[in-house]
Amino acid sequence: MEQTRKPMKIKVKFAENEEAKVVKASDALPLPLYLTNTVFFTLFFSVAYFLLTSWREKIRSHTPLHVLNLSEIVSILVLVASFVYLLGFFGIDFVQTPSLKDEEEDIIVQEDARIVPCGQALECPRPQIAGIASPKPAQKTIVEKPAMETPPPTAEDEEIIKAVVAGTIPSYSLESKLGDCKRAASIRREALQRITGKSLEGLPLEGFDYESILGQCCEMPVGYVTIPVGIAGPLMLDGREFSIPMATTEGCLVASTNRGCKAINLSGGASSVLLKDGMTRAPVVRFNSARRAAELKFYMEDPENYETISMVFNKSSRFGRLQSVQCAVAGKNLYMRFCCSTGDAMGMNMVSKGVQNVLDFLQSDFPDMDVIGISGNYCSDKKPAAVNWIEGRGKSVVCEAVIKGDIVTKVLKTNVAALVELNMLKNLTGSAIAGALGGFNAHASNIVSAVYLATGQDPAQNIESSHCLTMMEAINDGKDLHVSVTMPSIEVGTVGGGTQLASQSACLNLLGVKGANREAPGSNARQLATVVAGSVLAGELSLMSAIAAGQLVKSHMKYNRSSKDVTTVSSA
User: Is the Cβ–Cβ distance between 561 and 268 less than 8 Å?
Assistant: First the structure.
């Protein structure tokens, strides 16, 4: 008799009578399931409509709502009963049943790896059951599941992959040819791996809506990158509390910002003021002479022509409204910096369309004008520039708070005098020696980048959006600390671009600024800008305190160090 046997699976089946004892929501009526659901759906919406109609008539006749007749009492009872049924059937049962079923099967169905029949020996061990085999509650059995493997391509997809690899089908045309963005990403991914000989294992493909990015967020996708999102706060700002979403891979950043929020809250909160709100675009045009360039400059800056130019500009959008035009001449070239309001959008496309309208209009009076580019870098977008630092771009915000002396000591673990001195020597003097442009702060870009990634902003605009002047001053005879951040060019929006993606939209919703504000256009974007400034204030306060107390290196060694052995990591 053979001693080796193939591993077999053991499945424990529960008795049918035990299963019958479980009472479900669908057993409420002795009817088929679909009829029971129909009855309760009809009851729920019928009585809801009856109650709303009845209460509307009471409001019109000035009858107190709490005075109920018999029909209304019965309707309320029926409404509650039908709601309980629907919640039990579609809510609790839907959430719990799949997870419990999977958990039971994971525990019950186990692989039996014994090499002898169970009846051959009295000491035949029973299969270990994960989760209940150990009597100690503190110990948990963790079974690692293998990574989900991408299914092999179908015969049709295989032909397309070969065509992409051979170059007969352009990779960028897969979405239009297939009509399926997810399938196009999968085929492009496989073709890329074959062309490069490098594996993309670890870069997720499943679980993303590729339709949502088509034509607006990303071209030729092969997957998506996951970035953890932490929550700092709540931050008390202008009398409201905000939980700040921060997408980052830097340890200590969220914790540090959270400590700053705590210190601000315990001191009464922070306040902010919006100084300016306007997005800019600056085309460059060329003439045959500097005189002609100067003539257009004088024309654009003449108040008598502003109304005409503004009317032409404003035709491009119902939200874009021209605020000003600032001109600069360089030889025979003219740079015109248009500034306009953009509602709740960040506004780059909006202002660009308005500028194009004005350029087309100017061609009739200045036919010798040669448009070199719609953007001449006098805007200035995604680059450190003094014009943004001085004139502002996007939202210009100042945020301030007064931190009580005992809070500085107990929460921030330092003192007011040390913070004031460090800020002067580091953020002001040190930055001046370095020739910093808008960088008179400790780490504003850290917070700006994290909030931008979480809320779907353009991460490249972190450059000018992180322009920040941090100031600290001892007040009340040196007992308390006044801290402020001045940020002249925060460029944010709550509509368009990455704000529409599910994850980023959820973070905007957390802040209460999701989408456009129909009642007060632009207020959501302005609110987001003040939240960014308030978050920077908290981050600056905490980091400066850590440096003043000598805790920076210690905290980073504790929270920003990986325990992974990097010598074992190699590229595939």
Answer: no
- Give pLDDT, residue 564: 63
**How far apart, in Å, are the Cα atoms of 250 and each of 227, 253, 412?**
10, 6, 20
Give yes or no for residue 452 having a pLDDT over 60: yes
How much is the pTM? 0.72
Give the active site residue among 58, 353, 413, 556.
556
* pLDDT score recorded for residue 445: 97
DSSP character at residue 461? G
Q: Output the pLDDT for position 22.
A: 46
For this structure, is 382 an active site residue? yes
* Residue of 162, 382, 413, 426 with catalytic role: 382
The pair of three-digit structure tokens given for residue 183, joined into one six-digit string: 């399938």
**Is the model's pLDDT at 286 over the cut of 80?**
yes
Long-range contacts of 150-157 (CB under 8 A, 24+ apart): 150/186, 150/205, 153/186, 153/187, 153/190, 157/183, 157/186, 157/187, 157/190
Total H helices, total E strands in the chain: 20, 13
Q: Which residue among 250, 301, 421, 473 is the active-site one?
A: 250
Could you tell me the maximum CA-CA distance found in the chain, to the nearest angstrom?
Answer: 107
The one catalytic residue among 238, 400, 458, 473: 458
**CB distance 222 to 185 below 8 Å:** yes
Residue 218 CB-density burial (10 A; 0-12 exposed, 13-18 middle, 19+ buried): middle
Residues with Cβ within 8 Å of 340's Cβ and at least 6 positions away in sequence, in order, are: 278, 279, 313, 320, 321, 322, 323, 347, 350, 351, 354
Cβ atoms 301, 357 nearer than 8 A: no
pLDDT in tens, 361-415: 999 999 999 999 999 999 999 999 999 999 999 999 999 999 999 999 999 999 9
Angle formed by the axes of helices 253-266 and 444-455, to 10°?
Answer: 100
250 is catalytic: yes
